[in-house]
Amino acid sequence: MKKLIAPILLLITIYSIYYDLNIGTLPTNTIVAAESTTTVNDSANNPVEKNENIPSESIVVEPGYTVLSIVEELHIGPVNATIQQIINDFETLNSNTNASNIKIGEAYLFPIYTN
Q1: For the whole prediction, is pTM greater than 0.85?
Q2: Phi, psi dihedrals of residue 11, rounded to the nearest 5°
Q3: Which of 34, 88, 90, 100 could be disulfide-bonded to 107 (CB atoms 3.0-4.6 Å)?
Q4: Across all residues in the chain, what is the average pLDDT?
């Protein structure tokens, strides 16, 4: 019986890693789109003006999401941009906002890339 426990634990571990990498454990359809506006107020009451050169969508950040995960959910299929380009475009659209310091419940403009 003891010889059977190690292979079973190994299989459970491998399956858990496979599931997490392919399917994930974060919710997928809970992003709430905010009203489409040209300006959005952040928590410091500084208006964030939309840059007309970068297509974007206003999204309210839900728990567990990052800039990259939200941009990936906005696109069907692969995103046609590098990670650095996504971060730079996000910070351009949302002046005075660092991509790594977004707040839950706040609305931000996220870039949309055409294929």
Answers
A1: no
A2: -65, -40
A3: 34
A4: 78
Q: Where are the domains of the chain?
A: 56-111
Dihedral Cα 103, 104, 105, 107, nearest 10 deg: 50
- What tokens does 70 get? 């939200």
First to last CA, the chain: 55
Q: Output the six-digit token pair for 80.
A: 């046609």
Identify the bridge partners of residue 47 per DSSP, sorted by sequence position: 41
Helix (H) or strand (E) holding 84: helix 83-93
What CATH class does 56-111 carry? alpha beta
Cα distances (Å, whole numbers) of residue 71 to 15, 41, 57, 67, 77: 27, 20, 10, 6, 11
pLDDT tens per residue across span 9-22: 999 999 888 888 77
Contact between 102 and 34 (Cβ < 8 Å): no
